[in-house]
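Worked problem 6 (solution included).
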Amino acid sequence: MTTRPNILFIVADDLGYADLGCYGGRDAGFGAVSPVLDGLAAKGLKLTQGYSNSPVCSPTRFALMTARYQYRLRGAAEEPINSKSRGSTTLGLPPEHPTLPSLLRASGYRTALMGKWHLGYPPAFGPLRSGYEEFFGPMSGGVDYFTHCSSGGQHDLYLGEEEKQQDGYLTDLITDHALDYVARMVPGAQAGTPFFLSLHYTAPHWPWETRDDEALAAEVKGNLFHLHGGSIETYRRMIHHMDEGIGRIMALLQAQGLERDTLVVFTSDNGGERFSDSWPLVGGKMDLTEGGIRVPWIAHWPAVIAPGRMSPQTCMTMDWSATMLDAAGVAAAPDYPLDGCSLMPLLRDPSVLHEPALFWRMNHRGQRAMRQGDWKYLRVDGNDYLFNLAQDERERANRAPVEPARLQAMRAAWEAWNASMPPIPDDATVSLGYSVKDMPQR
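Solution. The predicted structure is:
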């Protein structure tokens, strides 16, 4: 039997499907954008049909934490949770709900989150109340990389539940704290006590700041959406800074003899934003078209995953959370059955495929989607579409008029699934940072 693995769950923020070299991304002016992640994919498993649970930040993170459809929890109806929810006792991850870290911790794992939380504010909510022993990072959705202030101008960098004033570029600070944590966990891991580290970078989320752009902090403090700035070059450097940090952590695991028995999973919380590359997909963050929900999925675990594997298995965020519990030999809480399905059989043998039905819904634009096999049912602004993604990943050839029976069957399946979920509350909010007044519609 394989030793219970250490688990490193790396989540980028607003990373596009094709931003990484291993997903077709182009080199930047300084060379490869993501050599470390490309290497992990080459030495492990790369999925080409993997999804996030939502096309926007905090709803996906609810699913990540619970291994269940996020729609089951009130806070996940916010698209996304915004700073106005500070002080709310309802808009967050309820501490009594079992989570991936709480279940692992109860089974003997050490647990930590280094990076973005975005699941409600203390005192009602927080990482330390939902299974993590340690936390460093911002509580909200987006902060400046140098001042560490949120969109509301409030300082938002914490160590545990205490504010942490620390100079530095946030991507590097998250890496530094992760390195310190892993170094402290090494003796225990070598002696048989595994650790679970959530490494949730804010990169490459706006504002568009590289390590060299501290002067921009004063310029964007009034509007972190940074609508007047940014560039593809800046965006790619932000990804590269994150990739370098991941490389430092992988080097430490290797030096301490822990790489073989550590499951590393990398993804993004949703599809890309303004400067991202999602080719050949259409759409991005806030959209249920493929560019908003199909994201990179890389898994590296030398003890189990043979190198150079690739799979077209469809899956979503909550499946990987279920996989991590399975890898650790941890069962779900009886009163909170998982919606996610373990992918452990796939990790052992990428030829093992199944075709689950995957479902999404969004308050924004009344969107809904279902994927099963090659087919996708989509509704946007009251219009129903049917696409064969094996033939048309760009979702340009609407098959609904010529295959009405298939459309009807998939629509009925979505309706049945939706009836099994709580309805979207009337007071749920949609927070858009910009519109067609700021830039042309994609």
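Discussion: The longest strand covers residues 6-12.
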